[in-house]
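Duplicate of earlier report; 2,4-dienoyl-CoA reductase [(3E)-enoyl-CoA-producing] input re-posted below.
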Amino acid sequence: MGRRKQVLDSAVAALRSLGISAFGFEGDVRKQEDASSVVDSTFNKLGSLDILVNAAAGNFLVSAEDLSPNGFRTVMDIDSVGTFTMCHQALKYLKKGGPGRNSLTGGTIINISATLHYTAAWYQIHVSAAKAAVDAITRNLALEWGADHDIRVNGIAPGPIQGTPGLSKLAPEEINSKIREDMPLYRIGEKWDIAMAALYLASDAGKYVNGTTIIADGGMWLSSPRRLPKDAVKQLSRVVEKRSRNLPVGAPKSKL
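Output:
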């Protein structure tokens, strides 16, 4: 599920090339009607819904004083409200005894989080707040829906991952070397690392894990030095914006 058809089509084609029966649905997690439509369409196409992964996110570098309330609200809507909206709409299919369920157990939910809020992060107050809310959603749903519906709810908190829009937007080549210096393992993660964490949580290997967020960042969250002075953020953001114009609605482009 995503807002951009071209990105969806590319992802679907890549999965189908591996022999996977994949479908893409356009939708915005901020809109309840889109969430409902996509969840129902998934069930109609596949006959069941067993795993929900909430990975939608909005992010950009900005100091707190330059961030507009609308920009803050937009990221909260995508990351935290969007996560809850998707969970809420998928509940009827994920819960024990729901439509299409062939077992006496419920499905599983994986929420993609971050480590920014474990301490504090420079120029990331909006995302830190949003991901803290995502972690709270994970724990509370694990408690309530685990007891009531036998649904396991867990999270993954990735560090910087090679080949992702997030890394190119938030840590372009200008500061990539500094990131590696700060990481205990001296390397940036791979998509495979996150995929394996998700596979563990979604499979029977993790069937007794509930309400936990797995940190997969090479230990980077243990140390968070200030890499850039405040004034440099504005210049860096201009460089990043040239590479990607897909900032969330309401992001203060004129102030970055």
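The chain has one domain: 48-255.

Merging into the original ticket.
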